[in-house]
Amino acid sequence: MSDRQLNLHGFEAIAWTAVWLFAVLAAAVLIVVLLRYERKLVPRRVGHVLLAFRLGLLALLAWTFSQPVLSWTLDRAVAGRIVVAVDVSDSMATSDAHASPAEKLRWARALGMIGNDANRDRLDHWIGAYEAGREPDWFDDADNAADKPALASARQEHLQNVFAQVDALSRKEIARRLLDGANAPLLSDLADAGRVQLVAFAGGNLSIERETLSQVVGEPPAGLRTGKSDLSQALAAVTSDGEDSPVLGVVVLSDGRDNSGQEAARLAERLGQSATPVYPVMFGSSLRPRDLSIASLDYPQTVSKDDKPVVTAVLNTSGFGGEEIVVRLEREGADAIERKVRARDQTAEVQFQVDAADVGRRNYTLRVEPRKGETRADNNSRSFAMSVVDEKIRILLVDGEARWEFRFIDNALSRDPNVEIRRVVFRQPYIGALDEPFFSRTLSKPQPGIEPADSPFDGLDLVILGDVAPNDLTAHDWQQLDNFVSDEGGTLVFVAGKQNFPLGFSSPVVDRLLPLTDLRAVPVTGPAAFGPPSERGFHLALTPEAEKELMFQFADDSAANRDVWSSLPGHSWGVLGKAKPAATVFAEAVGIGDERALPEQPGSKSTANAAFVHQYYGAGQVLYIGIDSTWRWRHRVGDTYHHRFWGQLGRWAAENRSSVGNEFVQFGPEQTDIEEGTAVTVRARWSRQFLKRFPGLTAKAEISRSDAPAEAAPITTIALKPPDDRPQVAEGRVSDLPVGDYRIKLVAKNSDLGPAEISAPLYVTPFRTPELSDVAANPQLLTELAQAGGGRLLLPDQVHELPQLLARPEQRTAINRDYELWNHWMVLVLFFTLLTTEWIVRKLHGLP
């Protein structure tokens, strides 16, 4: 329907109306006066023609002054959209031969492979029997009693044939046939309820046409990143095409696998709040298949020469519980290392200790030997690489006095061939027998002929700060230490002491650096302080976050590692506290007699008994150790655990620093190994002296293939710019590099970096996805999605309900359109036509 109305806006302003009406009347009077004069010179007929043109011009001007606007209102129905998103990720390529008979029967009925309206009730009974765990009744009262045995046998045989056909279909093929197959395609039914927007999704999403559905499902485009499942991509498609038409609902056809880390339920909740319900349709069996896969792989990307790095893998062993699994670690040019592990129910953990005798890049493949009956064998191996470098870890050990903890830490690190250590002890006995004290008593000591560094922490990887007194470090020293962590990306470790630190400090810088609050001393008194070492005082319990860190690994597998930590000698004193919101608890004190302070779950931020706490601070990190007795771990085992802990802590700290450079700059990517599609920050950290010498310094990073000639042009260049408030750092981000080995070269203008090229390696490896580590359908996540979005979870044989669930009363909208007639170009054409014609008539008859 439509409604038209002419409005004269020129009459809305009274003053303007009066002015233009007076002008029109005055012009009319003048035209009449002019006509009386012209009749003396021209015939009456010519005078009438001139009068007509002049009055026409006057009328047109009056029409324009009145500002006529034609308002046109259209009342039309609004067609709603139905977004249908089909999952094409790798897990949807799984065939569920292990599915239960009830699940297979539902899929077969959904595809029209069995059943019709006449026997719908019989199939419902069969599905109910299978779900209840019993054999179905193969005939009912309507069947001929004489034919029952033969009929039952025929039905069982037919059903098994149907199951065999279903076993050959992948999840996404079942979804495709359900959407656009020959038997009652869902897309046609949904088209009666609204306009269908078809979307394919995995790690990304892509709007597609019905005609290309089969092609996209069969061979998804690379841009969809099928190695990743991201359910939020299905929901994001609602607004991705920029349309403003109302969405009647979102139908998501998926197995419920999601390894994106995105919170799809929150997006579904927002859609539900805007009256856009979400209806997931689950494909695949919720039963875990019989399958071996690599769920996770943990290894250090960079290790020092002669280290003994540990590679830890967690295997999914669904269906192989209690069986012996053979795992091999293969290295190019070396013999494979083989381990046999026994699967515990659904998982198994295996560790390999590898040597690092040779400097260079090493490529490895972890492989699980395939077993008979596996659902799929393309998830049994994973490749990775490790770099062995011959560089010293630079450590500064600072303490107020040479206490036991200082001496044992110094002893452990001094004997590590990969550590370059410097020590400062502020208070130490000195009787003058030597030219100078054994340890330095100041943070920085200038050497003859060498200009002192601006900061005593320049060039370090790790600073270990012990029981210093408030007057040992000046406010300037603390600010330099803060800059070392936040600006230069260094690692700071606090080791609590009984005399001064941290309880004797009241400083804003210290408060910022400490990763915990509510500090309190916990002395152990009474018999518990003097028992055997294994029973003395309180013990440390690692949190799950700490078990992932290299420095806390004292055994080859997690269970054995926890046993080692529980058997370590206890501690009779500590300074414990509560972790800050952004910090991570690595270890908690247990058995201190204050059970009220213990958390309900390991690693809880609410515990007041946090002993080892970590936080990221700017570009660096801070670790707090709330005991002064790690040396007790040497009881009857010597270096085994104490030396290993501090050596691994130094390597953990060094991983946070750039890998190449000189006395002017440290340069390199945050990570030397990244997966395809991952962005990485490339960072240069300048020395203060270098920036003072070259204040106009600008820098960039040129990225080339590692095997490209030195004179070849880089494949990409990124500008390195300082972030806010960090002038010593210049950084940029690079992404979307194809798989391969790269060389990142630092180029600085208006400066002199020295004769040697400064370049760091970068290795882009294929995307390692947990997509196939567990391919069981996830009804819990899909149910959560449906509840958040105000819909409900459907199974494939229930999709015929969707048109009714999505149907809504017809929506209509009024569309208002205004046409400014006075401002139309035809008015200007008519005005000049009349004016020109009047002028020609006058001239032809000799009028001025």
Give short descriptive properties of this protein.
848 residues, alpha/beta, five-stranded mixed beta sheet, 35 strands, 27% helix
Number of helical stretches of at least 4 residues: 19
* Beta-strand content: 25-35%
Q: What composes the largest sheet?
A: 8 strands, mixed
- Rounded to the nearest angstrom, the distance between the terminal CA atoms is 55 Å
* Cα radius of gyration in angstroms: 40 Å
Percent of residues in helices? 25-40%
Strand order of the largest sheet: 17-16-18-19-25-24-23-21
Indicate the mean pLDDT. Answer: 84
Question: How does the overall form come out from the CA principal axes?
Answer: extended
Give the quaternary arrangement of the chains: single chain
Total count of strands:
35
The poorly predicted ranges are 445-452, 594-604
Structural class: alpha/beta
What does this structure look like?
This protein is an alpha/beta fold and 848 residues long. 27% of the residues lie in helices and 27% in strands. The strands form 8 sheets. It has an 8-stranded mixed β-sheet. Helix 3 packs antiparallel against helix 4 (120-131). The model is unreliable at 445-452 and 594-604 (pLDDT under 50).
